[in-house]
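Recap slide: Urea ABC transporter ATP-binding subunit UrtE, sequence and predicted structure.
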Amino acid sequence: MKAENNDSPEKLVLETRGLKAYYDQSIIIRGVDLEVPPGKVVSLMGRNGVGKTTTLKAIYGLVDSTEGEVILDGEAIQGFAPEKRARQGLAYVPQGRHIFPTLTVWENLQTAIIVHGDKAREQLDFVYTLFPVIKDMLKRKGGVLSGGQQQQLAIARALLTCPKLLILDEPTEGIQPSIIDQIEDTIKMLRETGRMGILLVEQYLDFAKAVSDRFYVMDRGMTVAQGSIAELSDEIVTSHLQV
Ligand SMILES: Nc1ncnc2c1ncn2[C@@H]1O[C@H](COP(=O)(O)OP(=O)(O)OP(=O)(O)O)[C@@H](O)[C@H]1O
């Protein structure tokens, strides 16, 4: 679904055009067109194995064999290494968090500061305000944090890079309900700041509905439905999301 007004196309923070991805010789993503407007939360949904994570990895440059365009804030970034995409304003929080368990919370945050410098350091107060628990645990090893705290640390580290687009892969996976509520509040708060677009892969339907402005549904490597989150009908859920 294109921008509302065809006369003056909406500026997009992310656009993919005909994005394809392959593992070995097999095509996994078959030409995906996504649009994320600035300040909006867009959910990419679909059953297990349809290619959601591969789409995110292809956007971030983690799949070797891809075709098509990835446009970040008007600039084509396909072909760039992940580090360069990160410097251009892409942040990716993968499924399972991937914090450094043997580093302290502070050292985990420092990994972003080392790469992004003063720009990242200036964000520290912002992330401490979003996640007070992170500030309280700076000296603890990442690995001793609960799953929810590790998720907050992973998001905090991503936010230090001042992303134009924040990519979150299943942030609620394996996390207890009270922390899921906190992550929901965080995403809503980030949306309110208007600082970034957010592309979210989420299996938990109520969560996706609560935080998203728009959705795409994938099936077998293609998008098969899209629209405003209010347009996510029971029929789409039954056909493409329910197991
Ligand atoms: N590194 C890889 N090498 C080969 N095949 C892979 C690799 N990663 C994923 N696949 C395959 O690609 C397809 C899409 O996987 P992907 O993880 O993108 O799906 P998904 O929609 O994110 O599912 P899930 O919700 O289970 O993570 C699956 O058939 C999967 O087995």
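The longest strand covers residues 26-36.
Residues 23, 28, 46, 48-54 surround adenosine-5'-triphosphate (CB under 6 Å).
(End of recap.)
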